[in-house]
Amino acid sequence: MFDAGHPRNEIARQVGVSGSTVTTVCRREGRLFDRSAQLLDLRAVEEDLGELRDLVAKKMLIVANDALDSLDGPHLVYNFGGRDNEYAEHLLDEAPLETKLDAMRAASLAVDKANRIVERSNPGLEQAAGILGGINAGIEFMTNYMRENHVDSDAAFDALETAAAQEREDEV
Q1: Higher-confidence position of 171 and 15
Q2: Which of 42, 76, 128, 158 is 20 to 30 A off residue 3, Cα-Cα?
């Protein structure tokens, strides 16, 4: 069967033994199965999965960016309540601080996960991972600064720019 070119698993099924038994017997007889086609298939699958991981990482970053951008304009807050479960809404000039913090935490998490996806699918892209790590650190810094100092997003961005300038000075 080996000489006729039958695959290992087919031989195993027809003979009624395991694939490893077929491999052992053939190896003892000096015969090895050519697995190059299977390896090429495996590489193709790995490449497809890598492209899909990259696409998911990109989508995560786009959603995180859109969520952060949506905080800059007017923000609708609403509530259902009271005995009659009445609906009430108010349009604010900007999102409340807690909403901003939640969005920044979600964006930070998305950046962190995207960073891990990029590291897994492209271990040679250390530069991209470093950039994503820097973005993540900036978002975490702003989230903590806003929470600790109860400030709006403009003040937090000013603090981030000051910290970045200090970091650049420290590197020189």
Answers
A1: 15
A2: 42
- Would the pLDDT of 156 be above 70? no
The per-residue DSSP string of 39-78 comes to: HHHHHHHHHHHHHHHHHHHHHHHHHHHHHHHGGGS-EEEE
Contacts of 69 (CB under 8 A, 6+ apart): none
Nearest to 77 by CA among 60, 61, 64, 94: 94
User: Bridge-partner residues for 91, per DSSP?
Assistant: 76
List the beta bridge partners of residue 88: 79
Q: Tell me how far apart the alpha carbons of residues 145 and 122 are, in angstroms, rounded to a whole number.
A: 33
Residue 89, pLDDT score? 93
Amino acid identity at 10: E
Give the number of other Cβ atoms within 10 Å of residue 135's Cβ: 19
Return the C-alpha torsion angle 90, 91, 92, 97, nearest 10: 70
What gap in Å lies between CA 157 and CA 165, rounded to an integer? Answer: 12
Reported pTM: 0.42
Q: What is the distance of C-alpha 100 from the center of its chain?
A: 21
Strand partners, 77: 90
